[in-house]
Specification:
The protein has a domain of 137 residues: Rossmann fold (3-Layer(aba) Sandwich). It contains eight helices and nine strands.
Amino acid sequence: MRDRGLLIVLSGPSGVGKGTVRKALFSKEDVSLHYSISMTTRNPREGEVDGTDYFFKSREVFEQLIEEDKFIEWAEYVGNYYGTPVDYVEQCLAEGKDVFLEIEVQGAIQVKSKFPEGVFIFLMPPSLSELKNRITTRGTETEDLINNRMTVAKEEIEMMDAYDYVVENDQVDLACDRIKAIVQAEHCKRTRLREKYKQMLEAE
């Protein structure tokens, strides 16, 4: 019997570097994870590619998919929708692939209610001042929007108790190493392996 894959959820406040860490993690040769691309109604940022970074859709299309229950989770964040398509994730898990989600905090909480067996990792900034600096240096947000993001970020950080692990993003490579160690440890968990080895004993 093929082992079911892990659902690994990386989340954290806006500006913490989720996308940067995810891209660095997936660039490593010893990482075998399947990235589940999220869908959003926000406009692409410079360098982002449709179907690689996100599926960029109109509000009308997104709302139709909500009606059809085509998302594991979805949320409206700072005026835009974000969601995780369900079919791709379920297929990969059933094939024994580890699926990696990089999503907002609201979405991660929804996923946990549907996939409590998932591995939930909260990416934490070294400090709030560093978080504000990262958001500001993007150069894509107004002062009002930056302040709004900081208010939301503080609320999101208070929700870390819903997660299994906290990884500080002080240096991208170190954050990647910590996430890799978490995934390896989860694959060795007794609760995940017990049924497999119980069947082995019964087959003897």
